[in-house]
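Incident log, structure service

09:12 report received: a user says their structure output differs between two submissions of the same chain.
09:20 pulled the input from the user's history:
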Amino acid sequence: MTKKTNDNNGTTKRRSASALSLRVEAVEPAQRNVDAEHFFTVAERWLRALQAFAHDSGQRVTWEIVGLKKSSAFVQVIPVEPRTREPIPELAKKWDSGFREVSRTGHPPEGFRPDSLGALEAFVKAVPTNAIVSVGNGRKKNVISITAEVQRRVEEAVVAATSIVPSEYSVRGTLRGRLAVLNSWNPAERSFRLQVPLAPGKPVVCTYQDGQLVSELGLGFEGTIEVEGLLHYRRGDVWPYQAEVESIRVLSHVAPLTELIGLLGLPEGLDSVTYVRSIRDAE
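09:34 re-ran on a clean worker, output below:
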């Protein structure tokens, strides 16, 4: 009996540590009850904000109600793993600390991407003017009221998040250059280097999966080609550092040595192989 009681106490503590709460109260003290439509609208937007954050965090969870009071329209939820039903306190703590940071600084907190920030903005904007709305983390004294200042801070964070240029980004396009190096013919590691005329010292690493491109690469080696595919850039760089190539167009190619020998003509009594060897060995 004691063991079962201890297990229940442990589960209660874990659930309490994972809890996030929403409280909606009437502005006027004499107005005892909260408008039901206002409460459900705010609660829905709050839950969507939690779901968006969980999605951006890469976690698939469900949100369970663990506390519900009708006197002040209070609801408390926890994130749980769908299969095991185990609470995930880390997720709740990250959302709580992130919301506190954004409400204090107006900067996008770690873990909050544009989608979750947009859902958070929709939540704080849904707060009715005739109600006091606050959120918490399971501790009665540690709540944050959704004021006009908090709403403004969240809006600032949304604007900042959408204007931040990522350190790396990718776009579809084409790129021309000299096919300088064939790194590998291994089907699992097919790649080559493309030398851009205006930045010869920074060759673009090109990878490809289509084996049919090998013939174009052979024809275009040491010549000028145009590649099309997904180009990866680093912030501030004019040229991409990597390309995932889907198609290749040979613009110019270097004639093979046998063709050049044919144009020049061979010395009498020498075949092409002997002639090439004589040039190589400086005979």
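09:41 both user submissions now match this output. Likely a transient worker issue. Closing.
09:42 reviewer note: Helices lie at 2-18, 36-56, 89-105, 114-125, 148-163, 214-220, 257-264, 272-280. Strands lie at 20-26, 62-69, 74-80, 131-136, 144-145, 168-184, 191-196, 199-208, 224-234, 242-252.
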